[in-house]
Design brief:
SH3 type barrels, SH3-like_bac-type, about 30% helix, single chain, SH3 domain-containing protein, 3 domains, alpha+beta, 15 strands
């Protein structure tokens, strides 16, 4: 009887041990592995991307304290290498990009549009929530606003970019007839935006004059507009410099 009891106890212990071995137990090492996987860099196929912020930094590491490599221009085309990651501290997402000169580094994903095309507004343009005339908003793009084209639908274009009168990068729909994808128009608009931001009227005139005198930009749709702006500034500057005489 004693032998039978010992046998039963042994079988019971063996069964319990096997059952516990079959269970999945999370250890400290397992948690570290899961954390490591969640922090790892994801990769997809390389593709073209458009920069939506002027002087956007490119850094050696994907965080705000990473060593600065260079900066990108508004409307510049770069290659998104497919590598992306999220900074564990700021929780901001970063993309790894390659510039035309071969430089590579990390930049904020929220200021890039992947698989998009760059364009510039030719006139004041109403923005719609959806490709439907009934969804018109109060916001408008101004002439020479540089944006990224995300997709098209019939005569409509889904765009993303910052308005001249806006504070943030926005997304919406516009009519396709109001945009130019000509590289000369885009470059002219980019330089004009910088020129018009000059503090003094004299500096603005000088910067705009440099643009219209640049033979590489002579075919731009905006040259006539810039010449009118120069004329207007000169007239205002003349009045400002020549106060009325006391007679």
């Amino acid at each position: 009887m004693k032998k039978i009891l010992i046998t039963i106890i042994s079988i019971s212990f063996l069964f319990t041990s096997c059952k516990q071995e079959g269970k999945t137990t999370k250890t400290k090492d397992d948690n570290q592995t899961i954390q490591s996987l969640s922090d790892s860099t994801e990769e997809v196929e390389p593709s073209e991307a458009i920069c939506l912020l002027d002087k956007l930094s490119v850094r050696e590491t994907p965080n705000a304290k990473g060593k600065w490599i260079t900066s990108m221009s508004l409307g510049e085309k770069v290659i998104f290498t497919g590598a992306e990651t999220t900074d564990s501290i700021s929780k901001k997402q970063y993309y790894k990009v390659k510039l035309v000169d071969g430089k590579e580094g990390w930049t904020r994903s929220s200021f890039l549009v992947v698989d998009g095309k760059v364009g510039v507004m030719l006139a004041e343009v109403s923005i719609y929530k959806r490709p439907d005339l009934l969804t018109k908003t109060e916001n408008k793009y101004s002439p020479m606003d540089i944006i990224a084209v995300i997709s098209t639908q019939d005569e409509w274009i889904n765009v993303k970019g910052k308005r001249a009168d806006g504070k943030y990068i926005e997304e919406g729909w516009i009519k396709s007839s109001n945009i130019s994808e000509n590289p000369v128009d885009i470059a002219t608009a980019k330089f004009a935006i910088t020129a018009l931001s000059k503090e003094s009227m004299t500096d603005r005139i000088e910067a705009l004059q440099e643009i219209v005198n640049n033979s590489d930009l002579a075919t731009s749709s905006f040259i006539g507009v810039l010449n009118e702006k120069i004329k207007d500034y000169k007239e205002k500057n003349s009045v400002k410099l020549d106060p009325p005489s006391d007679i």
